[in-house]
Amino acid sequence: MDLHDTKHFKGTALDEPTMRAQAPSIYALGPMAGVSDRYTFVPTARIVDGLREQNWMPVEVEEQRIRKEARRGFQKHMLRFRRAEQMATLDEWNVELVLLNSHDRGCAYQLHAGIYRRICSNGLVVSEGGFEAIRFRHSKLETDEVVRASFRLLEFVPRVGEMVNRFRERLLDADESLELARHAVLLRYPSLDASPVEPETLLKARRDEDVSLDLWTALNRVQENLIRGGVSDSRRDRRGRLRSVRALRGIDSKIGLNKGLWGLAEQLANGQPLESVEALALN
Q1: How far apart are alpha carbons 274 and 148 in whole angstroms?
Q2: Are 248 and 105 in contact (CB under 8 A)?
Q3: Are 26 and 48 a contacting pair, CB within 8 Å?
Q4: Pairing state of beta strands 134-136 and 232-236?
Q5: Rounded to two decimals, what is the model's pTM?
Q6: Residue 24's closest CA among 93, 72, 88?
Q7: Among residues 19, 153, 164, which one has the least CA distance to residue 97?
Q8: Contacts for 23 with CB less than 8 Å, ≥ 6 apart
Q9: Sequence-ordered list of residues with C-beta below 8 angstroms from that of 282, at least 6 positions apart, any chain
Q10: What is the pLDDT of residues 131-161, one digit of tens each?
Q11: For residue 183, which phi and psi values (nearest 5 degrees)?
């Protein structure tokens, strides 16, 4: 299979009815009751329209689960955008703009650099060391500020390509792959023992295209298994039932895990040894 053959792969932009159904908070008409007078309400829908005008197409949306009913319709939401010119010829990977916001005082506007890998339909997020997230407080905020900031990502695209190529060229031996998996476990669980699976289970490939020794492929295997879940091995719970990795649901959890994984990959690509797992566990 030619991973770069794009003629049969196309992206699809989300329309407004779909976005309203999946994340109604995007279309809030005002902030949650009780916010400060200094809070400037800029609806996410307005930002979406502004980004569309600059050829950023929304391709994925989700909103955070709520515990308090008062937050319904105002809670944190995440949107992923892709450039219009990338929609007709979806490559093996494409850079995305990741937008976070809420209308309940819980989150400032944030712009992150993301990567979509079509083989596994996975969305990575670049670490702060690679691309520092752009944040806007809800105070005297104007729509144009966020839209203008999105073009910083376009300037960053060549560097993303360089990093992906470095990840591809960096071959991992068995010990390095296992260390990557062990550190990845600690990004989600408090200890190796608390994990429902052995670290090496996270290295298992779900498809033939992901059977490779390079860092890029290993990173994507680990990320998919930790976020999508569904993998298991011989570990059992107190009742003797097989344990498995559960899908990760929280927006903050997914962003944090993604950034942490990317940071680990950057360390390995730069020839830097990963901190000992024992020291991380103590911290």
Answers
A1: 37
A2: no
A3: yes
A4: unpaired
A5: 0.86
A6: 72
A7: 153
A8: 61, 62, 63, 77, 79
A9: none
A10: 788 888 887 778 888 888 888 888 888 888 8
A11: -70, -35
